[in-house]
Amino acid sequence: MNDPETLISEKDIGTRVDELAAEISSDYADKGELVLIGVLKGAFIFLADLSRKLTIPRLIEFIAISSYQHGSMPSGAVRLVMDVRASIEGRHVLIVEDIVDTGHTLHYLIDMLESRGPASIRTCALLRKEHKTEVDIEVDYLGFKIGDEWVVGYGLDFAERDRTLPYIGVIQPDDPD
Ligand code: PRP
Q1: Which mutation among 37, 65, 100 tests ligand 1's pocket best, with the greatest number of atoms within 8 A of CB?
Q2: Is 101 labeled as catalytic in the residue annotation?
Q3: CB of 39 shorter than 6 A to ligand 1
Q4: Residue by residue, what is the 3-state secondary structure of the chain?
Q5: Where exactly are the structural domains of the chain?
Q6: Average pLDDT in the 101-126 region?
Q7: pLDDT higher for 98 or 70?
Q8: What pLDDT is attached to residue 2?
Q9: Exposed, middle or buried by CB within 10 Å (0-12, 13-18, 19+), for 176?
Q10: Distance (Å, rounded) from C-alpha 110 to C-alpha 40?
């Protein structure tokens, strides 16, 4: 099995994570503790790296959702699988995603978390497939725009494989080997 072709190198990811962390730290300076909500599973590595580079007080939370793949649910319908533990009422929240594709996941999460009365909600994603957007969603802190490739590594998987690659690679879904 060949390693996936490199799309974004480990070094370039590290540089961009440092830049995003500096920007977020500056924007949230003197605003109290920032609640970082990582969306499982894909965001676990990005969240780990980003959170350790922040210079502001922060709290780590995770949330898990699942897309409906079958049945009568409309395309893009998602459901909550695991909730955050902390109350976010009156607190500043940053949702951390590995990738925004159609935008349905982020749209669902923002709607759901907004109803809990946070002081603010912003979004941070390492990757965005811009031309795939179905829901008009703003990503406040974005690492890289990418094309319609199937990407793996740095948290992202193909059928649960390749999540721990240190770089973002591209595979052909019809021929993942
Ligand atoms: C991926 C990714 C986002 C979502 C984005 O998760 O981590 O959460 O899809 O897609 P959307 O913008 O089209 O809604 P996935 O369902 O692959 O789960 P995983 O993170 O556990 O791999």
Answers
A1: 100
A2: yes
A3: yes
A4: CCCCEEEECHHHHHHHHHHHHHHHHHHCCCCCCEEEEEEECCCHHHHHHHHHHCCCCEEEEEEEEEECCCCCCCCCCEEEEECCCCCCCCCEEEEEEEEECCCHHHHHHHHHHHCCCCCEEEEEEEEEEHHHCCCCCCCCEEEEEECCCEEEECCECECCECCCCCCEEEECCCCCC
A5: 5-171
A6: 96
A7: 98
A8: 80
A9: middle
A10: 15
Average pLDDT over residues 114-124: 98
Ligand 1 atom closest to the Cα of residue 129 is 12
Which residue out of 46, 78, 101, 129 has the highest number of ligand 1 atoms within 8 Å of its CB and is therefore the one to mutate? 101
Q: Which CATH number fits domain 5-171: 3.40.50.150, 3.50.50.60, 1.10.600.10, 3.40.50.2020?
A: 3.40.50.2020
pLDDT at 71 over 80: no
pLDDT at 165: 97
pTM confidence score: 0.94
